[in-house]
């Protein structure tokens, strides 16, 4: 029982359904809850008081690559969704945490504070509490984005990281089959030279009800032991969802970490080397 309690303990960037329900009951005006799934999924059912904010709306597609939108467009999005640093921001997806983590990174990149992700997502929430179909209206805010460039990496930085292993370490958050070149979403197979592999499945425990639950950071240290703490870590995946989660896990485990915007698809679109 002690092991179970520890492994299921809450982490800095996650909030449990129970904790959220408690806040909704006692301090409903202190929260902004965002459903990062599609509008269609939101309309089917969502957590009461949640606002639809599809994570895909933060992407800009250029030359088949996916990148975060520029400051002007993000500012408009954040204001339309009522973003403010005066309230706790709570994000959720279906429970994978990938899509919620992507939006978390975008918000953090543009200076939003006090962000949480629901551990277990909507899947776990539905097993404990009711959902709603009522659309939540939100007033525009006057939020002014402030870029946090320390958590952003582009292709130039990724190339530097690949060649300068004394200062940087690249971290591949895709599947192992993609990492070793057995499969790929692009014409290129393999990984960015000198990148390490991280298996995100190791970061979750499956609960008896089928929900994937993010483990306590203390139980993840063995899975992080191959990642050097003395270097700047650059995470990447295919287009920036899975690596958003690895970014968060490393950030709250005390690493100096940034996310490679564009990720493997961006790297593959250029005439750059790969390893298998």
TrEMBL record:
Molecular function (GO) terms for this protein are:
transferase activity
Tell me the domain of life: Bacteria
- UniProt xrefs under Gene3D superfamilies: Rhodanese-like domain
Q: State the signal peptide span.
A: none
Q: Does the keyword Transmembrane apply?
A: no
**UniProt keyword terms in alphabetical order:** Repeat, Transferase
PANTHER family hit by this protein? THIOSULFATE SULFURTRANSFERASE
- What protein name applies here? Sulfurtransferase
Q: Which organism is it from?
A: Photobacterium damselae subsp. damselae (Listonella damsela)
